[in-house]
């Protein structure tokens, strides 16, 4: 496992243990005790037809369920569940973000294992950790491996998947619930096309840790990927356990049409010539001109003139499915 920690769920064949609850390879294992379990459920995420089934499965798997009713509830519920052995987030990327934020506020990221039950529109993070649907999610909660993955911290706020600045962050903030209902995951692409015509670019300075690399100019889009990257030969998952971000910068072009074309091509996985890729453990983005920039942390909006971002290596304990890649294809 390349020296990275892995613990087993309550599967039928746990690793051979020596003493002290550790596997023979020295990594911590699940001792098999159930302990306390809490599931934080967003009942209106995605198509909102999942609530009854999740309550049934949660009861079958001994989870206490707490339903959110407004933004911020999942943060509070996760904070209150910080002493639980397992906290599951049932919702989309925004619900996962709030649960992680609540556990981060309670200083419990490394002591409480997180699980994901995908019911949102995009579910990008769930796919990257090998969780495909609700039924599979509960199987993973029981028998999946537990990995210690990196957690990004941006201006004191955690994120697990990505931090985004520029065109798609602005478009994401304008994507309504009605659009998501009508177009599903394509709602974000549709709104990006609509936003591109009026987007004026973002004049920024990007400085990486220890001045490894820097970038200065006008950008259409910046993605800081912890769990997520733009497609590289079909691979959308970044390495979540290397303590480094995969950063993609799409340069602005003279016209809104070309800005939109560049961004959409990258969203759909087609390469373009105006892309800069960086890998770093920490970076800062400074917005030089105009209004503060709009940043999206796992889909949650933050307005700032400067964003300081740091990767905390293997800071988050999370249950993953078989599709999770420990060593995804590296960037070229």
TrEMBL record:
GO terms for biological process: phospholipid biosynthetic process. Residues 1-36 are annotated as: Disordered. The keyword Nucleotide-binding applies. It comes from the Archaea. Keywords: ATP-binding, Kinase, Nucleotide-binding, Transferase. Residues 19-28 have a biased composition (Basic and acidic residues). The keyword Ubl conjugation does not apply. InterPro entries: ATP-NAD_kinase_N, Diacylglycerol/lipid_kinase, Diacylglycerol_kinase_cat_dom, Lipid_Phosphate_FormReg, NAD/diacylglycerol_kinase_sf, YegS/DAGK_C. Gene3D superfamilies: 2.60.200.40, Probable inorganic polyphosphate/atp-NAD kinase, domain 1 (3.40.50.10330). Residues 33-158 form the DAGKc domain. One of its GO terms (molecular function) is ATP binding. This is Diacylglycerol kinase catalytic subunit.
């Amino acid at each position: 496992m390349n020296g990275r920690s892995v613990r087993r769920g309550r599967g039928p064949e746990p690793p051979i243990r020596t003493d002290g609850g550790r596997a023979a390879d020295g990594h911590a294992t699940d001792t098999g005790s159930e302990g306390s379990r809490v599931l934080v459920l967003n009942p209106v995420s995605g198509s909102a037809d999942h609530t009854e089934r999740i309550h049934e499965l949660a009861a079958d798997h001994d989870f206490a369920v707490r339903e959110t009713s407004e933004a911020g509830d999942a943060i509070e519920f996760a904070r209150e569940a910080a002493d639980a052995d397992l906290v599951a987030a049932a919702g989309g990327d925004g619900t996962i973000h709030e649960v992680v934020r609540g556990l981060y506020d309670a200083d419990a990221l490394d002591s409480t294992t997180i699980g994901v039950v995908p019911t949102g529109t995009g579910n990008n993070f769930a796919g990257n950790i090998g969780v495909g649907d609700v039924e599979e999610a509960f199987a993973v909660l029981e028998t999946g491996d537990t990995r210690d993955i990196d957690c990004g911290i941006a201006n004191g706020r955690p994120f697990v998947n990505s931090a985004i600045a520029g065109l798609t962050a602005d478009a994401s903030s304008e994507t309504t619930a009605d659009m998501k209902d009508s177009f599903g995951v394509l709602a974000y692409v549709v709104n990006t096309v609509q936003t591109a015509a009026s987007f004026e670019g973002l004049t920024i300075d990007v400085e990486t840790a220890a001045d490894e690399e820097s970038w200065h100019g006008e950008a259409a889009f910046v993605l800081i990927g912890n769990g997520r990257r733009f497609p590289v030969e079909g691979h959308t998952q970044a390495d979540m356990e290397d303590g480094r971000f995969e950063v993609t910068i799409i340069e602005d072009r003279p016209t809104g049409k070309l800005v939109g074309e560049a961004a959409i091509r990258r969203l759909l996985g087609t390469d373009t010539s105006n892309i800069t890729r960086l890998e770093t453990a920490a970076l800062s983005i400074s917005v030089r001109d105009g209004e503060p920039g709009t940043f999206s942390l796992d889909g949650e909006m933050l307005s700032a003139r400067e964003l300081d971002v740091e990767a905390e290596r293997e800071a988050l304990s999370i249950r993953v499915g078989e599709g999770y890649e420990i060593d995804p294809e590296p960037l070229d």
